[in-house]
Amino acid sequence: MKKIPRNVLMKFTGITLWVFLAAQLLSGCSVAQSFMPTETPTSTATPLPTATPLPTPTPTEVPFYLDAAVMPLNQQAPILLYHRFIPDWEAKEAITFTRLSEFKNDLQKLYDSGFSLVSLKSWIDGTYLVPPGKKPLVITIDDFWFADQIYISEDGTPSPYSGIGVLWRFAQEHPDFGFSAAGFSNMGDKYYGDRQIGDKFFYGDNQDAMWLKLGQTIAWAIENGVEPYNHLLQHPMLSKTAVKDIQWQIEENDRLTRYYLELAGRGDLIPRLGNMIALPFGEWPATYSGIEIIKKYQNQEGKPVEAIFEAYLYADKELTPSAFSNDFNRYNLARLTASEIMTQWLLQQAPDLPDAQSCRLGPLAQNQADDQAVIQGLISAAIQSGSCFEGAYHVGEQIFLARDGEVVPYSPPSIIAP
After folding, report:
1. Is 163 in contact with 85 (CB distance < 8 Å)?
2. Domain boundaries of the chain, sorted by first residue
3. Which of 148, 117, 147 is nearest to 134 (CA)?
4. What letter would DSSP give residue 94?
5. Confidence check: pLDDT of 333 > 60
């Protein structure tokens, strides 16, 4: 390309310049080459390889554990025996009478010492359960159904002027103490008061109404954790009772209990009645045949005797072994007659009585939580590691008995009359 003189370029302005440049292009002279940088040749880009998607990670399963409550095999429980309850201002007629404030104080002291209530039935059949750190306690009442023992008010709760009413309210204030009791009745000579005036109870003028009220009270008891049992019809001294009368005394007491339930329209509760006997005055019949009548007695539903209780010797201080103990004898079970001296003795024993414990089992998959074989293996491993000990393991709704190096599912044994 010929060089354009500077004086010539200076003469071109505006469109004149553009006309000149166009002419130069037509003449084969590339003006752009004079003013533009040389382009670098562009290479064809190689496409990136398609990325293989990473697999979706499997969520890590959170370890799952089961908390078991363990009842010691050597557990012993006090089975306390009360009789009548009276207002604080009333004079005691006998050692078997307990003032309501005294009963409440007993409950508070027992609670503070780590006791928790279990039903008499659960203690006998080995299914009892208390929270970890607690000790089992059973409360029984003889000569049931006096109104000062249990009276159901119009609001459907037991009167605060009755023993069961005091126990009921204490349990509402201390839920971990529980609510449970067993009443041994004499249906033939202990009459229920169906009226309450202030803190006193009276027999009504209408006997039919009184029996109806009694039936309703028995129904309330069964549905709310108060178990009715047999103390014989007229509280006889069995050592002086003819053998032929012993069977009748037991049977008639059972028959009347069912009669009052039917009278109240609650015959549906009859199958829930148990078959335990508390010997009046704590005495056995004088003859072997009389003893056999009691041990082999079956109630109207065909249930054999589950337990027989002695007691009444106020100086005797004997705790009752659990169903897992070699010392357990269902036909000869002790109770402690409640008194200030007995309660004080029991509180002294409390620190030496074993507590229920907690044992964590796992890890396991959630779908194994009800697998008996898996749970048995976990219990064995926990015991072998020393983190837990042998005992009755409550895992959810299942119970396992760990003893002598074995772990087996547990259910109450079938009772066969001797």
Report:
1. yes
2. 75-352
3. 117
4. S
5. yes
Cα of first residue to Cα of last residue in the chain, in angstroms, is: 134
Query: Pick from 184, 100, 182: which is nearest to 142 by CA?
Result: 184
CB 275 within 8 A of CB 307: no
Q: Residue 18 above 60 pLDDT?
A: no
What span, in angstroms and rounded, lies between the C-alpha atoms of 237 and 282? 9
Res 312: pLDDT: 62
Q: Average pLDDT in the 413-417 region? A: 83
For domain 75-352, give its CATH number from 3.20.20.370, 3.40.50.920, 3.20.20.70, 3.30.420.10: 3.20.20.370
Decide: helix, strand or coil at residue 401: strand
Using a CB cutoff of 8 Å and minimum separation of 24, what contacts does 262-266 make? 262/215, 263/211, 263/212, 263/215, 264/212, 264/215, 264/216, 264/218, 264/219, 266/215, 266/216, 266/218, 266/219
Confidence of residue 55 (pLDDT cuts 50, 70, 90): low
Q: Residue for token digits 């039903």?
A: 119
User: For the CA atoms of 34, 40, 41, 45, what is the dihedral angle to 10 degrees?
Assistant: -150
Token readout for 137 is: 């306690």
- Per-residue pLDDT of 188-203, as tens digits, reads 998 899 999 999 999 9
